[in-house]
Amino acid sequence: MKTKINICFITAAGCLAMAFIDGIWQPGYRIKSAFKMLFFAFLPIVYSAMDKQCGIRKVFGFHRKGLKIAAILAVSVYILIISAYFIGQRFIDFSAVAGALEKSQGVNKSNFIITRIYISFINSLLEEFFFRGFAYLCLKQTAGRNFAFVFSALCFSLYHIAILDGWFSLPVTALTIAALAAGGGMFNLINEKTGGIYASWLVHAAANFGINTAGLFVLGII
Q1: Looking at the whole model, is its pTM more than 0.70?
Q2: Tens digit of pLDDT for each residue in 101-126?
Q3: Burial (CB count <10 Å: 0-12, 13-18, 19+), residue 29
Q4: Taking a C-beta distance cutoff of 8 angstroms, is the pair 213, 82 a contact?
């Protein structure tokens, strides 16, 4: 029970801290990334070193089972996101996204490429470690599968509210949050098949890369 409470507390605290940083403080991207590494990687690792029931090392296990499915999903998700952008631009005004990116995330044409590469591969690994490795695979050892499954998926989706602030209208934002919760659940299922976070990282990175590709069009880079 103590491990369950501690993991939930660290996860919730990390999400709230990053919500404050992303939505209110809004520092430069390097500072924001440093804090994210602190809350999403350093603190869970330190805690797992003190609580052997956490078993954080297991999330880095590599099992080939399920990786083929993950690769297919990664390509499918990328194509789906790009297709959704071109279809959605007929109904959704994406012009506000560029301004929101620069205001809240510090992303513009001059630094888009480097920040998007970081987000696609490094940031996605941090989130997979935190939400799927720590808040799901570790948590379910003491809290049970159902609780850990729902908790991880909800935290993953709600964490993005501060990031998405100002991007879309309220209905589209709500739909996006719901899709993120479903995506978090899908990532959990992938990890159950492989026993680690690498497969879900592959899919997550593909999703981010798809969003970033759409961002190239939104910012007028291509």
Answers
A1: yes
A2: 555 556 666 677 788 788 889 999 99
A3: middle
A4: yes
173, 164 contact by CB (below 8 A): yes
The length of the chain in residues reads 222
Please give the single-letter amino acid code of residue 204: H
Q: Is 120 exposed, middle or buried (0-12, 13-18, 19+ CB in 10 A)?
A: buried
Helix (H, G, I), strand (E, B) or coil at 212: helix
Report the alpha-carbon distance of residue 132 to residue 151 in Å, rounded.
Answer: 10
**Cβ(197)–Cβ(191) below 8 Å:** yes
Q: How far is CA 162 from the centre of its chain?
A: 13
In the block, which residue shows the tokens 């989706």?
157
Give one DSSP letter per residue of 12-73, joined into a string: HHHHHHHHHIIIII---HHHHHHHHHIIIIIHHHHHHHH-TTS-GGGGG----TTHHHHHHH
